[in-house]
């Protein structure tokens, strides 16, 4: 069967069940694709040498008549922030180079139990600190649409792998937009579930009150299928929500009919600085809203007056939690250790952390340690938490008026590698529209909405819903996806020049 790499996960699963293709064939096709293009894209840090053995085992179980999970035999890429027993887990940092975990992250264990085939570990900004995947200790990942541009961050490796047809599915993590912003700039679908919907056990922590694991895919339906596998209560995660979750795949199927749009109230935040968005991003956003309105949705202007303070609050809360979480990488408990002849334990710790951490990680540790220091805690960290509460109240008041909130997923299309690397503030502002969801714990989805007129690069629209209403996002996202697919006649990624040309 030709073009296995371009099929959705749902399509692959159907062909696997029917026996038209084997998991070994599907896995080999993706391994061949990785071998062919990843030298240019650099989406993967490690390719799983056991992938074909896992696929062969799935084929044997299916041949024996065993009833398997819906996606059994479909390949999966895993962001390197998630620990795995059979592949190194580095979180994009030299300080964890070669680290082998004694256990799997819960989401990885659930993926294995469902018969997914781990292809490898994907590149990321070091300890998930970044918006471009340029802060990886192992070199940047490149955007398959244009190899001179960033694929977003921190999960640029997972998004690029899916966009470059190296994997049909990937796992990412989202602390302030690290799934949704890469989806925006690569033309893929990215979902940040409700905080607590998906276990964080085995996800190397950046900011524990903000981190959330979620799916990266090419279709909303595939994202729903993957979230159905990884979501659910985990007693190993004290923040895990104990209640059962409805099927996100079913919600996506309901949304694809378009009926969910009739009477749907979509909120647009009047305080978002329209002047701060690239013209093509703003235009694509307005066009998507017009299409939804034409199908019966109602566009409602809402007020969220504290959203403008979200970035400032986030970049106090996140560094503070990161400073605490990364203290364990001290040459004694975890991570590399440098020899300092005649040095004290403190000397070894200092030398190891200086050599093992990159500049962005050091910057945020310093910021966080300062914000938590005596005399400054209330002024900085405490004040940021008060702003967080105000943002949560903004969401509560907004959702009393509307069903979902819509924003552009990020302010610009993919910028060039190196363009913002020396301007941390400009980099941080890439998360302008995604950060509020993490501060409030609500779910968000980024769905491709078109190409920006000025540069031909992909743009995404973000939908946000109340906590635990993830299914609502899948319905709305799938409805828009179906509308746009009818208009385009083919998936957006089919129009990516670098994917279809000589470069890859």
Summarize the structure in words:
The chain has 504 residues and is α/β, with parallel strands linked by helices. It has a domain at 4-258 and 443-500: Amidase signature (AS) enzymes, CATH 3.90.1300. The protein has 17 helices and eleven strands. The protein has an eleven-stranded mixed sheet, with helices on both faces. Strand 7, helix 9 (279-294) and strand 8 form a beta-alpha-beta unit. Helix 8 crosses helix 16, helix 10 crosses helix 12 (359-372) and helix 10 (310-325) crosses helix 13. The longest helix has 22 residues, at 378-399. This is Glutamyl-tRNA(Gln) amidotransferase subunit A. Keywords: ATP-binding, Ligase, Nucleotide-binding, Protein biosynthesis, Transferase.
How would you summarize the topology of this molecule?
Layout: H1 9-18, H2 23-41, E1 44-47, H3 51-63, E2 75-79, H4 106-113, E3 117-122, H5 156-163, E4 169-173, H6 180-186, E5 189-192, E6 213-217, H7 220-230, H8 248-256, E7 265-269, H9 279-294, E8 298-302, H10 310-325, H11 345-356, H12 359-372, H13 378-399, E9 404-408, H14 424-428, H15 435-440, E10 444-451, E11 458-464, H16 470-488, H17 497-500
Parallel strand pairs: 2-3, 2-4, 7-8, 7-9
Antiparallel strand pairs: 1-3, 4-6, 5-6, 5-10, 9-11, 10-11
